[in-house]
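Why does residue order matter? Because the sequence determines the fold. Keep that principle in mind as you read this record.
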Amino acid sequence: MLRKSLVGLVVLIAVVSMAFIVGGCSKKQMVAEEAAGKSLAAAPVPAAVPPPAPVPAPPAVPVPAPVPAPAAVPPPAAGPGPAPAPAPQAEESIDLAGLRIFFAFDDHSLSTKARENLEKLGGWMNRNSQGKIQIEGHTCDIGTAEYNLALGERRANNAKMYLERLGISPNRVSTISYGEERPRIPNQDESNRSQNRRDEFLKMK
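Structure:
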């Protein structure tokens, strides 16, 4: 009987002890949880970090307005072509045979009529700037051939110098003497000989 009582007491003590242990553990767990809750409640909640300010977009570069294409320049109207070169003026005709000049016997000076003919010839040459002439000096058959060649040369040169005084370039006038070699008509009398003492004019190319 006593033994049963002891066993029951031991059992009771064990039960109480277990209850106490369980209760203490529960209480500690509750206290721990409560303390943890208080700690969580007491801990300041960190302020929300504001999102970084947006980086402003770079200013838009203004796009230059398109340059209008230059208006097409119409081709210049075809004007009249260059004026045609004037046609070369036809050379004025002249009767050089009708301008021959005559001299007195053994003389090379110019008579009034000879000067008039030379002035007509000079006027024609001034109007026809490309014209060139040759003056031929002639004599009659009186005298030696050498003398007459020299006399014919003086007669031709005298006429040339007169033309130069009228403004004719000496480059446009040449001279030659034939003396008595080319009579115009036979030297059979004084009348014919007077026609052979002369200067003749020929056109040159």
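The chain has four helices and four strands.
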